[in-house]
Amino acid sequence: MGSPTVIVIGQEGNKFILGAEDDVLAAKQPPTLLAIGGKQSIFELTGSWYRLVKGAMVSFLKPESLQNYINQMDKLIKTMLLKETENKDTIKAVVTMKKLTFNIASSILFGIKDENTGGGGGGGWSCLRTFH
Q1: Which of 4, 14, 44, 80 is most buried as measured by Cβ atoms within 10 A of its Cβ?
Q2: How many CA atoms lie within 13 A of 48 on its CB side?
Q3: CB-based contacts of 7: which residues, under 8 Å, 6+ apart?
Q4: Contact 111, 69 (CB under 8 A)
């Protein structure tokens, strides 16, 4: 493989790798992955920054949190699709999906609500809707 490599498999190996402190193991990604993900990706973070990001992800991905997000996304998708298809025979799928994705991300991740759809993308964000 070009450099010293250790391959760890199985449940015990995963527990060891994922539960190890920073002073035990330091993960280094291949240069190509570093170029794609950047220096601030979770794979490159260590120490307190890693614990902060990991803690945020764990709380965000709890089953009860996900259930809440699914309900919010379902309402937002229904509302937005009804609005987008009202009195129209066709819609631009890519443009609609971009708007939908942006609205879901701004609503779920950042709590920015659009007064028209109940999701993100309203107010100061409306200027972004013209970009395709």
Answers
A1: 80
A2: 0
A3: none
A4: no
pTM of the model: 0.48
Q: CA–CA separation, 97 vs 75, rounded Å? A: 15
CA distance 108 to 86: 25
What is the number of other CB atoms lying within 10 angstroms of the CB of residue 80?
Answer: 21
Contact in structure between 120 and 113 (CB atoms under 8 Å) = yes
Map tokens 């759809």 to a residue: 117
Domain extent listing, the chain: 10-60, 63-130
> In which residue are the tokens 């614990």 written?
51
Residues comprising the chain, all counted: 132
| Per-residue model confidence as pLDDT tens digits over 3-49 | 777 788 888 887 887 777 766 666 677 788 778 878 778 777 878 88
